[in-house]
Design goal:
heterodimer; A: 370 residues; alpha/beta; eight-stranded parallel barrel; four-stranded antiparallel sheet; 11 helices; 20 strands; B: 341 residues; Rossmann fold; six-stranded mixed sheet
């Protein structure tokens, strides 16, 4: 499934996100071979620091990382880019800095070294001040504008969910001449505390990524899509082609995979790309634009939602999962009970049609109807 | 072993080998790799002196700093060296002692030695001096503002905003009697820091007290002496902001000798964030100046000038870097979260 993103024709909307898996030319070259539309470099900074150890933690759901930046100096990227692009492919350089001129310098250099586009990382959730740089639309505008004025390649800005009004920030990017936004960056977190040692799992605040942040990413992409016209790259918790489609249907033109690659390897990304292509063939969709934003049209205001007198109905011809009482335990309105024949009884008068039980039922025997 | 022999063995022209050495990007990657491998096998080393004659280049840069005992300048030097070295340049270190005459002498010596470029840190040279340098074919980059409103490529921070932010932080910590101890050097940067200090106090409606502004040598001794003066005042300050960490070290020493508690009796805030700042007792709150990054960035700009050979094809002419409050223990703040972010 192809897409047009940043003015570039991508053979797949799946892009590999910035991270240590794109730390040098060789790793980027390998990632490009998975069939993705493009690969983004690990975040390039002007003064790389020694990485802390450990710096990644995982709790089975999501991951916390502490400052994963490239340890290759900007000069070194000349050679790395040459290796990265030796078999062709699109490479986007992720650069991060604290001032417009520092940022633009890195972007200009990466353009010279052959980057096809720039992604600005203005929103790292760790160690960069209590308020992430990207929380201030004026600052985002200045940074973006300065870079846009100094390079000819397209500039995308990676936004953070750690802001009160993401729409304003996205607008600042558009007004500054940015070609696209990517959302969302990892979210400031403390992954957990070891209650035996009474210590946090990692020694400082970090960025939370992986499956648990997908709903936050989806909401962010949808709200950006309802604000600006520039294309959006959906990021956050994409672990399957279905996740990618959800982002696209809420307005994304492309999507980024990061944590899934980190946890499951490059071949897993290849699988996502192939499965997305297969879904496209089965549904006769060859271009992202045919489905982009389809679900967005159905994201309504409260007053636009027509309230139907829905209540829960149980299809007792389908047996319950043995020992399962989840719907009964969870019904806040006391509307569900177990019948003598082991079926499910719904008290119509008590059911308010909240819908929770339909999501809990593993046997899929509950439905809202009227 | 010479370049002709390499060319013969590789089956390419001398010009191609020369391009591998001087403009590698213009040679097909496979050919280039083959020639580089051959050079390594045959232990070929270009004759740098002859190269200098041919290209009018010596692959030597100079870094002029005011003082080598101030670790702030050493951090800049390390940044400069690491970029230069990676690009095949050596760096000469020149100490100006903050004296414009010594700086001028050095400039002449460096011109005579056919240096490719110079990085002037907190320079006292004026526009004429710098133009003279450029006319002699020497590339120039400035670190921190110089004396002559030069339009040369520059790496700097906003010293006024940095000092303003530091004094505002001291005000937010509840201090109102805030003194400023500033060094004789670096002149221009300190001028801006004084402006920032005054602006923050004025905005807070605190009248300036001339006796709270003390100028001294930019050393620990300077900080010590300045503090003795301040402690001798009828109303001693509750906080002391300094224009360098070295001065702040001297301030802390003097406060300790006077058996005053930091920050309860007198709070201290430095400027630079040199590495020893976090080893002070109490740990020094300061303005983190991105010293190493300034070194890296200035060397990058200088090499851009040299490599663009005056064709104006430079990435950027000015890089303004961000300074940041580094809040530790000596300023008397109460919120731990501020030390983390």
């Amino acid at each position: 499934m192809k897409t047009n993103f940043l003015g570039l024709e991508l053979k797949s909307p799946v892009i590999i996100a910035a991270g240590p898996w794109s730390r040098d030319g060789e790793s980027i070259r390998q990632s490009l071979a998975t069939g993705v539309g493009a690969v983004i470099t690990e975040t390039i900074v002007s003064d790389p620091k020694i990485d802390v150890r450990p710096r990644i933690a995982y709790n089975g759901l999501g991951a916390q990382n502490i400052r994963l930046y490239s340890d290759v100096q900007i000069e070194g990227w000349e050679r790395e880019m040459e290796i990265a692009k030796s078999n062709g492919g699109i490479v986007i350089a992720n650069v991060s800095a604290h001032t417009p001129s520092e940022l633009a310098y890195l972007a200009v250099k990466m353009e010279k070294y052959g980057a096809d586009g720039i992604e600005l990382g203005l929103s790292t959730p760790m160690g960069e001040g209590l308020e992430v740089a990207a929380s201030d639309p004026a600052e985002v505008y200045e940074m973006t504008r300065y870079v846009v004025e100094n390079v000819k390649i397209p500039v995308m800005v990676k936004l953070s969910q750690n802001v009160t009004n993401l729409s304003r920030v996205a607008k600042a990017v558009q007004e500054a001449g940015g070609s696209a936004v990517s959302a969302i960056n990892a979210i400031r977190c403390v992954l957990g505390v070891n209650i035996e040692t009474m210590e946090p799992l990692l020694p400082t605040y970090g960025g939370y990524s992986g499956a648990p942040i997908k709903p936050l990413g989806l909401a962010s992409v949808a709200s950006i899509a309802q604000t600006v016209d520039i294309p959006i790259c959906g990021v956050g918790g994409i672990d399957s082609y279905k996740d990618g489609l959800e982002y696209i249907m809420l307005g994304a033109s492309a999507v980024q995979v990061g944590t899934a690659l980190m946890l499951k390897g490059r071949d897993y990304v290849r699988k996502i790309v192939e499965e997305l292509d297969r879904w496209g063939e089965e549904n006769r969709i060859s271009d992202v634009k045919e489905i982009r934003g389809k679900a967005l049209e159905k994201l309504k205001s409260f007053e636009e939602i027509k309230i139907e007198p829905l209540t829960c109905h149980a299809d007792n011809s389908i047996p319950c999962i043995e020992g399962c009482n989840m719907c009964i335990d969870a019904c806040m309105y006391g509307a569900i009970s177990r019948k003598e024949d082991n079926g499910i009884h719904i008290y119509d008068q008590r059911c308010t049609g909240c819908g929770l039980c339909t999501f809990l039922c593993g046997a899929k025997k509950l439905q809202l109807q009227w | 072993m010479n370049i002709k022999e390499i060319a013969r063995q590789a089956g390419v022209s001398v010009a191609t080998v020369s391009r591998v050495l001087n403009h590698p990007e213009t040679v097909a990657p496979k050919t280039r790799e083959r020639i580089l491998d051959l050079m390594e096998q045959m232990d070929y080393k270009p004759n740098w002196f002859a190269r200098g004659l041919n290209f009018n280049k010596t692959y030597t840069l100079a870094l002029l700093i005011p003082n080598i005992l101030n670790p702030a300048y050493v951090e800049i030097a390390e940044g400069v060296e690491s970029v230069a070295n990676r690009k095949g340049y050596s760096v000469l270190l020149c100490i100006t002692e903050g004296e414009v005459e010594k700086e001028r002498q050095y400039i002449q010596t460096l011109i005579d030695r056919h240096i490719d470029g110079v990085i002037l840190v907190s320079s006292l040279l004026n526009g004429d001096d710098i133009n003279y340098l450029k006319q002699q074919g020497v590339a120039v980059v400035l670190v921190g503002e110089n004396n002559g409103n030069s339009s040369e490529p520059m790496v700097r921070i906003d010293c006024c905003a940095a000092a303003y932010q530091a004094v505002q932080h001291l005000l937010n910590c509840g201090h109102r009697e805030i003194a400023l101890v500033y060094g004789h050097t670096p002149v221009m940067e300190n001028k801006h820091k004084i402006e920032g200090y005054k602006k923050a106090l004025q905005e807070a409606g605190i009248p300036l007290r001339p006796e709270y502004l003390v100028e001294e040598q930019n050393t620990e001794e300077g900080g010590y002496l300045a503090t003795r003066k301040l402690l001798g005042l009828k109303e001693r300050p509750r906080a002391i902001f300094t224009t360098s960490d070295l001065l702040a070290f001297g301030v802390i020493d003097a406060l300790r000798d006077a058996e005053l508690n930091i920050p309860d009796d007198v709070a201290v805030m430095g400027f630079d964030n040199i590495r020893m700042a976090k080893l002070m007792v109490p740990k020094l709150s300061t303005v983190a100046k991105p010293l190493h990054k300034m070194g890296l960035s200035s060397a990058r700009l200088l090499l851009d000038v040299i490599e663009s050979q005056g064709n104006g094809n430079m990435a950027m002419r000015e890089i303004v870097l961000q300074s940041k409050l580094k809040i530790r223990k000596s300023c008397g703040h109460k919120e731990r979260i501020k030390e983390i972010f």
